[in-house]
Amino acid sequence: MDFSPAPEPRRDRINRARRGSAYSFLWGLAEKIRGRLAYKVLLGTGGVLAAGLSAWILYLFRALGKNTIEGFGGASVAFGALVFLGTISATALFILYFVNRPVRRLMHGALKIAAGDYTAGVDLDGTDELGRLAAAISQMGRKIAQNQSTLNKQRDEFQKLFELVPCIITVQDRSFRLLRHNREFARKFDPRPGDYCFFAYKGRAEKCVDCPVEKTFRDGLTHTSEEMGVDKDGTPRHWIVRTAPITDEWGRVTAAMEMSLDVSSVKRLEMQLEASEKKYHAIFNNVPSPIFVLDRESLEILDVNDRVEEVYGYSRREIAGHSFLVLFAPEDRDLRSARLKEAGAFTSVRQVARDGRILYCDVLVSPFDYPGREVLLVTTNDVTERIEAEQQLIQASKMATLGEMATGVAHELNQPLTVIKTASGFFMKKIGKGERIEDEILKTLAEEIDGHVDRASRIINHMREFGRKADMALSPLDLNRVIVRAHEIFNQQLTLKRIETVFDLDPELPAIMGDPGLLEQVFVNLFLNARDAIEDRFGSSETAPGEKQIKISSRGENGRVKVEFSDTGAGIPPRIAEKVFEPFFTTKKVGEGTGLGLSISYGIVKGCGGTIRVSGEEGRGAVFLLTFPAVQKERA
């Protein structure tokens, strides 16, 4: 609605101007000037006339004498009266033309200025007081015109702002009737003349219980509230309301301005966010796996879901505020701290429950945005039962491997036993004949016996360690050493079958995280498969040097450790290459293999954070590629 007044008739403008303070001031000023000038002119004219008459009478007395005066007394009096009346008329004409007319022009100019015609000015020339006053009034009119132009511009700007501002603005009287409103209010609510605010906003028959406008009328202060209603198409709306008093010149509150900012979209987002949070908490607490929210730097537990208590035995209140590392064994905490901050997936991680139980969990660590901070979202999956089942399979596979290795072990132990038997026979023969044994011979034989006893002990201990059931415990290790230890078991057996082993091991190979006993089983299985594949291809036929060969190479590359294990056996057809790691899959005859060796090897490598792949061609051997993440060296 336009706040500017409607055009008025000229007479009304003049009447209103006469009632205005500016016109009153100018009119009063003109009256005072006219009165003052008229007084001065009359006083001056009267004085001049009196002085002239006195001089004329005196002149007659002196020039004509007493008798003549008496003779001409009547004529002189008549003539003097005529002169006096002529002087009075001339003075009146003088006042009318030189005083009253300029003053009326001043008054007319002041009236025009008071009526709003600021450019008319006062048409009066001269350098006297009236001329200077006319110039001052004209200058004042121009000044008022400039000020009025500024005020009109400000009014137009305010009107434009009032109409185009995106918030809702209404002006209400004490009965809450709408006096004015802007375009935005009309667009949203389509009010009718004389509507009350509570009806226009909310369709109510009476004012709101907690009304900010009422408070403003009561105390003359601004008030703020949040309101809800519906617009003209029935859409629910929410507003932030702020009121301000409108006062008259005596400071009395005559109306109240109510400004409302539509926050419906924000409110909808808040409701959606609230629903989303409820949904998030419902999902968060009903996910079947334990979930932890950790501070990214300190690994402090900020929140957990309900599943944590079921798996670990800690309630949310007990575990919140503690480090996530309390769920690891003390010897593993330093190692896990660095790896957790790197994020990623970790398999078969050993953790400790509240009652001391050892748990094996797959852990997934992901960066996550949490209100006001960066966090890690950690999801764990209890795989203890699966690990225990795998351990049983691994142990069964070890026993099967030991059975397959029996022949090789017998050969390994037979050589030291033969040496010991030969030396002991030599001693018995010399003693039986009563012959003295030379000190040098005795020393040499004793050293041979001692060395072969140590060799037999190492083989027996190695077999005992290999066959012992043990949980996976990751620690930094040299993979080259694991490969060499696995080969020691098969060295004699491969030699008997004329299978050559070629090593190309990097002496500067970085360490990896793994379990040495389990990784040794991986390479034992690879040696077994390579031996059997070579035997299947060549059998008992004669071969040239290098045809029956196992080659092992290792190298560090881009933060990874790679081991390539190849043989010259029968190879793997492409159609079954993807199946060789499946449990119970085997290409051997019934009774010659369980099909668990490579499957178990795959699980062990993956548990150490690595990968294993196979390639090759049928009839041209197979290549197994193992890759592990290298242990990062600490910076100095």
How would you describe the overall organization of this protein?
The protein is an alpha+beta fold and 636 residues long. The protein is built from 16 helices and 17 strands. It folds into four domains: 10-160, no CATH class; 165-268, Beta-Lactamase (2-Layer Sandwich); 287-382, PAS domain (Beta-Lactamase); 387-629, Heat Shock Protein 90 (2-Layer Sandwich). Helix content is 53%, strand content 19%. The strands form four sheets. The protein has a five-stranded antiparallel beta sheet with strand order 2-1-5-4-3, sandwiched between helices. Strand 1 and strand 2 (178-181) form a beta hairpin. Helix 1 packs across helix 3 (73-115) and helix 15 (516-538) packs antiparallel against helix 16 (597-607). The longest helix has 51 residues, at 21-71.
According to CATH, what is the class of the largest domain? Alpha Beta
Low-confidence stretches: 1-8, 16-23
The overall number of domains is 4
- Class by SSE composition: alpha+beta
List the helices and strands and how they pair.
Layout (H helix, E strand, L loop, with lengths): L9 H10 L1 H51 L1 H43 L13 H36 L3 E5 L5 E4 L1 H7 L7 H6 L9 H8 L3 E8 L5 E12 L5 E10 L1 H23 L4 E5 L5 E4 L2 H6 L3 H4 L13 H9 L2 E9 L5 E13 L2 E10 L1 H50 L5 H29 L7 E3 L1 H18 L3 E5 L7 E3 L1 H23 L10 E9 L2 E8 L29 H11 L3 E6 L5 E8 L7
Parallel strand pairs: 12-14
Antiparallel strand pairs: 1-2, 1-5, 3-4, 4-5, 6-7, 6-10, 8-9, 9-10, 11-13, 14-15, 15-17, 16-17
Helix pairs in contact: 1-3, 2-3, 3-4, 12-13, 12-14, 14-15, 15-16
